[in-house]
Design goal:
27% helix
Length: 100
């Protein structure tokens, strides 16, 4: 069976933690894009949503950060594999991947 037959469409919203990160955010966005494509996903669109404030904060000195949204097509096992790859990455605060 071909990949197109088993691929699903997903929207991935990722909150970055750029505290102490000295390079442009675009470098980090491209790194995450590389992880998705390395897992076999094809990225249709990616959008830097900019800095947004958090609804609830656990740290008074960190009230918001950069949000990034990807629209992608991938096999069903890719979301879990992506979460596992970035699990220990300190620059990724939250990952939400939903099927659309």
């Amino acid at each position: 069976m071909s990949q197109k037959a088993t691929a699903r469409k997903y929207r991935a919203t990722i909150i970055l933690d750029t505290r102490g990160y000295d390079q442009p955010v675009d470098v980090l966005i491209e790194k995450l894009s590389g992880i998705f494509t390395g897992l076999g996903a094809s990225i249709e669109t990616k959008e830097n949503l900019g800095r947004r404030d958090f609804a609830r904060t656990t740290d008074r000195n960190h009230t918001g950060d950069t949000y990034v949204e990807y629209a992608l097509s991938a096999k069903p096992e890719v979301p879990a594999a992506f979460r596992e790859k970035v699990r220990l990455d300190k620059t990724v605060k939250r990952v939400l991947i939903e099927s659309i």
